[in-house]
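[Discussion] Sanity-checking designs against the backbone

I'm trying to build intuition for which residues belong where. Below is a structure token string of 107 positions. I'd appreciate it if someone posts a full sequence so I can compare it with mine line by line.
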């Protein structure tokens, strides 16, 4: 896993005050589909380092943030830009589908 972790403590700086788009992967260690999507997100991050930042947020360790952003099933991914949610992606998807969902940010 190359995606950096974020938490309640670093959320404001990592996500809300970030320069460009930030995809937050809401996940948990026990979630099989979360483990399937992680390497795909790592690939997208490594291929687009200047376009998007991908962070992981463990929902078990950060339940307040999961509740605030209405995470009811995982994996869930939200793209933040300018401190606001711009896109929500629910469920594990193949790389091409994720890239389509993120095309506005990957350009």
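Best answer:
Here's mine. Compare freely.
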């Amino acid at each position: 896993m190359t995606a950096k972790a974020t938490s309640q403590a670093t959320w404001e700086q990592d996500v809300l005050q970030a320069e460009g788009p930030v995809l937050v992967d809401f996940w948990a260690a026990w979630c099989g589909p979360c483990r399937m999507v992680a390497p795909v997100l790592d690939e997208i991050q490594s291929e687009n380092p200047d376009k998007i930042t991908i962070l992981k947020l463990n929902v078990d360790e950060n339940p307040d943030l999961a509740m605030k952003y209405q995470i009811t099933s995982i994996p869930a991914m939200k793209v933040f830009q300018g401190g606001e949610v711009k896109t929500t992606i629910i469920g594990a998807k193949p790389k091409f589908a994720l890239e389509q969902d993120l095309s506005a940010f990957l350009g």
